[in-house]
Q: What sequence folds into this?
């Protein structure tokens, strides 16, 4: 792309249109994957972030080239990265069961903004190559991640028991299955407390010869267990 004519990099009607179209396409690619998987920030949100970041960077370049060369051409870009950080926080949720959701979506929004900044300043190669890696990370790497996570011997569980008196018996049952209990702590969930039950979180190490699903199935058979799931 170094051999592109200068008008691809200058601020003119052609380059502005090209950069905004690229921002829509590349931001939309990230957003489609997030939206298809029912995440908070989807197709339109990522497009708006990417287009806004690109416009911000082009505005900075326009000011630098046509108004004052003493200005910092990266100032607006720095503000965009900071601002999108606050936007990403809104997609992160911490549930009562100690599940954290939205981190990948927040990272996707931030990356979408960075892609827009690269497009806005005319760094086409960086934006396109980065987009390729982002797409691979979101669509292909989760399969690799799940492959290794499902074979890990460490599990974090959320369990609901029908009474607090069942806690000691349940832990004894877990240990009787050759499962090592690392940590347990009670959870303050109003819906469980109201029903007379108790929620707890447990970190365990399972034997090599058993899968995660089999562990949950075995522990779910213990009397007094209302709910058990991996977190």
A:
């Amino acid at each position: 792309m170094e051999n592109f004519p200068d008008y691809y990099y200058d601020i003119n009607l052609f380059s502005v249109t090209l950069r905004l179209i690229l921002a829509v396409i590349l931001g939309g690619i990230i957003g489609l994957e997030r939206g298809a998987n029912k995440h908070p920030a989807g197709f339109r949100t990522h497009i708006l972030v990417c287009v806004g970041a690109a416009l911000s960077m082009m505005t900075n370049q326009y000011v630098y080239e046509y108004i004052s060369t003493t200005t910092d051409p990266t100032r607006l870009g720095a503000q965009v990265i900071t601002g999108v950080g606050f936007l990403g926080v809104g997609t992160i949720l911490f549930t009562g069961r100690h599940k954290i959701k939205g981190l990948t979506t927040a990272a996707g929004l931030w990356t979408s903004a960075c892609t827009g900044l690269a497009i806005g300043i005319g760094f086409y190669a960086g934006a396109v190559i980065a987009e390729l890696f982002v797409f691979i990370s979101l669509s292909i790497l989760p399969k690799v991640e799940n492959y290794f996570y499902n074979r890990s011997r460490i599990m974090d569980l959320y369990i609901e028991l029908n009474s607090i008196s069942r806690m000691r018996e349940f832990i004894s049952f877990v240990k009787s299955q050759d499962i090592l209990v690392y940590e347990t702590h009670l959870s303050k969930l109003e819906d469980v407390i109201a029903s007379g039950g108790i929620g707890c979180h447990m970190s365990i190490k399972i034997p090599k010869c058993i899968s995660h699903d089999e562990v949950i199935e075995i522990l779910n058979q213990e009397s007094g267990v209302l709910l058990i799931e991996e977190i």
In short: The first helix runs from residue 13 to 36. The radius of gyration is 25 Å. The mean pLDDT is 84.
